[in-house]
Specification:
single chain; alpha/beta; Rossmann fold; GMP Synthetase, Chain A, domain 3; 5 domains; six-stranded mixed β-sheet; 20% strand
Amino acid sequence: MLPVLALVGRPNVGKSTLFNQLTRSRDALVANLSGLTRDRQYGQGKIDDIGFIVIDTGGISGEELGIDAAMASQSMVAIDEADVVLLLVDGRAGVHPGDEALVQYLRSHNKPFHLVINKIDGVGEDIAASDFYRLGVEPIHTIAASHNRGVRQLITQVLIPWVEQEAAEAVHADGQSIRVAIVGRPNVGKSTLVNRMLGEERVVVFDQPGTTRDSVYIDYERRGRRYTLIDTAGVRKRKNVRETVEKFSIVKTLKAIADAQVVILTLDAHEGIVEQDLHLLGQCIDAGRALVIALNKWDGVESDERDWIRSELKRRLQFIDYADIHFISALHGSGVGKLYGSIHDAHDAATRALGTPRLTRILEDAVATHPPPMVNGRRVKLRYAHAGGQNPPVVVIHGTQTDALPSSYRRYLEKIFRRELALHGTPIRIELRSGSNPYSGKRNKLTQRQVQRRQRMMSHIKKSEKKARQKKRDRYRKPGSASRSDGLWVGLPTFRWRRLTQWLVRA
């Protein structure tokens, strides 16, 4: 089993920076702002064939109130889960009373820990460590997490007791767990739903919009199946986003949608469907992810309003009729268990293997029932289809003039394939490909005999055209006239010459 490391310390000492260095990722938000990290963030790292799991936690100052108290409780849970604790301190700020309180807490709980002095760049190792010797902690490690200085030596020394032959194995093989992302607007109950699905207070829940700032990946197992639940930050309208941290949170949410296999779009039953919900829905559809819609806070809706809400959902969400809609209460747990059935159906449909013969037969039946339209007097021909990918399912159709196929017929094909293949809960994409002419842009090289024959034919054609032009000129010339260059009478037909002569005589 892989060792578990917990990063704890006061706010803004560099825990998230060290987390990103150990995991070689940007999963944790980093900014010069205290209290940025609020939930436990798990990641997997590997240094010199030594595998480990690292936990990023929120800052502990010892004076937490409100939401900070919930953050501190998350850090305490991480300490209990960890095999060894890395206590980070700020080498530039020196010893703080909060650092002393954390040392006393770890000692009282008999938890193995290491004192890590961060931000030694520009200060010096000896100068930065001199103030922390009075804590009585040995050994003392000095690093600069932002520059990756001393990080490798730190992990090598910390993990010596856990170095075993199977240490480099991964905890879960790729593809064995179902990745489910919980997305929605701020304060619609996403974190409450995550805690309800997990059965524990795993993420921070507070009655304040913007509580969750980072995308938290949580692995768990339920009834023999593995899941990876992703709690995301709420996405507001662009005009309401002013803080830089919130912009990073939105980017992390969009990345979580791309990483997930199934997305649960959480709506607020009291507010109904707003424009921001439709915008998030469009992001999920563009990403091609399987979709489940959860209408939260259903227990607080009056009975006379429920019928109107159902009809409104049916009217405004008719373009995604393939997605299941659940009416739940994340706080009380009603209807939450039924989400797993829709998650399994959507995941199975999104990752199903599709055979070429079956897809081709469906295409032939669809074309026979409703043929493609005519384009420039020629009908678009769709010959055969095959699978082009999964999550979402991609159907590649080969034919001629497919570039001119209208979007309405493409939507018709999508509905036919989704209905015949029973793809429930996932969108389907149609890719059209036209065959290219192998002789396009190529010219046959003529032999010498063919070149001579072509020259004779061209010469004959030119002579024939010249004779035809001469015959035409002779027909319109007056009989007995000298030539076309003899003045006024050149080129006049006979009847026009006679009429002009009569007019001159009368004058």
